C-alpha cells in the first residue's frame, strides 16, 4: 500500500511529493526548496528515503536536491535529456530571474532514458512516461496500483504547462497530455507541480486548453 504526502515549498509554491510504502520506505519527488521542512516531515512520519526523483530540472523543482542527497545518501534520478540542466542556470531557469540566485546542483546519479517504461526502486514499481513539451525531458511517474501519477508541470487543474522556456514546445506538450495522461484510467489522481490534484476525466471535461 502506498500513501502520498504533499509539501508546497519555495517562492513559487512548488509541490514536493513524498510517496511512502507501508514498510516505511519512501521516494522524494521534486524537492524544490526548504529542505528542513522536508526533513521535518520525514522525521514526523518515520519514513526513510530511497531516492530523489525529478519530473524535470527547472529551478523551482530542484532547489533542495543537494541537501536531500547529502542528508540521506540517496541517488538522484533525472531524464538523460536534462542531465546538464542541474548545474546550468541558463537551462534550469534560475538565470532568467534576477531575484533568484543562480542555481548549480551537482550532477544526477542516475539518468532515465526516454525508452524506459518502468523503474523499480525497493518496493516501488514506477511507470515512466516521457512527457515533453514543458521541457524536453519531462517525466511522469505513475503508480498504477495506487491509482495516481506525479506529472510535474505538464498538466494542471484547468490548465497546462508553459512552453516559453528553454526547450519548450506547445505541440509536443499537447501530444504528451493526450497520449500519456488522458489515456490513464479516468479516475487516476494526477498530482501536478503546482496547485491541486485533478483527474483525466475532469480535464477531458473542463480544461479549456484541451
Automatic annotation (TrEMBL):
InterPro entries assigned: MBL_Glyoxalase_II (IPR051453), Metallo-B-lactamas (IPR001279), RibonucZ/Hydroxyglut_hydro (IPR036866)
Keywords assigned by UniProt, alphabetized: Hydrolase, Metal-binding, Zinc
Origin species: Planococcus lenghuensis
Lineage of source species: Bacteria, Bacillati, Bacillota, Bacilli, Bacillales
Keyword set includes Zinc: yes
Pfam short name (any one): Lactamase_B
Superkingdom, natural source: Bacteria
Database matches in SUPFAM superfamilies: Metallo-hydrolase/oxidoreductase
Essential cofactor(s): Zn(2+)
Residue span(s) of domain Metallo-beta-lactamase: 13-194
Annotated segments matching region Disordered: 190-210
Record's keyword annotation contains Lipid biosynthesis: no
Name this protein carries in UniProt: Metallo-beta-lactamase domain-containing protein
GO terms assigned for molecular function: hydrolase activity; metal ion binding
Amino acid at each position: 500500500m502506498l500513501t502520498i504526502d504533499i509539501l508546497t515549498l519555495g517562492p513559487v509554491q512548488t509541490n514536493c511529493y513524498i510517496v511512502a510504502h507501508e514498510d516505511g520506505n519512501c521516494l522524494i519527488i521534486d524537492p524544490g526548496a526548504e529542505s528542513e521542512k522536508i526533513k521535518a516531515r520525514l522525521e514526523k512520519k518515520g519514513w526513510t528515503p530511497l531516492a530523489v526523483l525529478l519530473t524535470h530540472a527547472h529551478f523551482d523543482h530542484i532547489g533542495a536536491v543537494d541537501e536531500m542527497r547529502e542528508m540521506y545518501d540517496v541517488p538522484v534520478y533525472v531524464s538523460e535529456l536534462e542531465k546538464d540542466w542541474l548545474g546550468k542556470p541558463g537551462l534550469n531557469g534560475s538565470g532568467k530571474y534576477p531575484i533568484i540566485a543562480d542555481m548549480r546542483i551537482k550532477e544526477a546519479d542516475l539518468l532515465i532514458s526516454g525508452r524506459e517504461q518502468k523503474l523499480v526502486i525497493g518496493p516501488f514499481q514506477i511507470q515512466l512516461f516521457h512527457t515533453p513539451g514543458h521541457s524536453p525531458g519531462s517525466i511522469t511517474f505513475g503508480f498504477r496500483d495506487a491509482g495516481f501519477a506525479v506529472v510535474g508541470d505538464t498538466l494542471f487543474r484547468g490548465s497546462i504547462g508553459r512552453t516559453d522556456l528553454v526547450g519548450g514546445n506547445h505541440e509536443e506538450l499537447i501530444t504528451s497530455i493526450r497520449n500519456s495522461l488522458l489515456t490513464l484510467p479516468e479516475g487516476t489522481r494526477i498530482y501536478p507541480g503546482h496547485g491541486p490534484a485533478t483527474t483525466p476525466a475532469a480535464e477531458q471535461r473542463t480544461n479549456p486548453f484541451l
